[in-house]
# Entry
Amino acid sequence: MGILETRQGAGTFVTRLEPAALLSAMEFWVGLQDGERANQVHTVRRALETEAAAAAAICIGKDRLDEAEGILNRAHAAIHADPIQHEAAMQCDVEFHRLIAEASANHVLSALIETVSTNTIRGRMWRSMHDNEGLLATHREHLGILEALRRHEVDRARTRMANHLYAVEDYVTAIPEPDLGGPAGDAGAVLGEQQSAH
# Structure
């Protein structure tokens, strides 16, 4: 689990115990979940990210707000390109949520969000590739979240993040993911993604 490090000729030592490193095994497990367990992961993610948005609304500074605006500007350009640049829009989505988690100023919360977001990335990518209206709706929701952060309105930031993630959950559970060759194919694809990420 990354807690201990063995150094030849020196002994065994406790590592820095960084949250992100300690959660890497859980991240791998989350990436393999589907069905009802995947829905449970979405629920946990929503609980964490709504509180991160509320915390970020308190302490987020101008630099972070400007960075978030830049991300959403890039997302707007990707969405309105011809053809739509789905991959670029998806990357902006990931960056926007990550920025808010980091802006919460809670390293443990940020690490937990990064961990449980793994299993939702494929669902969000499927949405962006097959439903352009959903992509536009997501962008509008992101703009609403940013406005709440800019005003430092804690309850509004929390509510807008919750509404956004409810919409994502509803969509991901309503639209089947592409057939990757059955359960073995799904697990293999996730394993490949996890291995390339570490």
User: Anything to note?
Assistant: The first strand starts at residue 4 and ends at 7. Residues 87 and 109 are 27 Å apart (CA to CA). Strands lie at 4-7, 11-14. The mean pLDDT is 80.
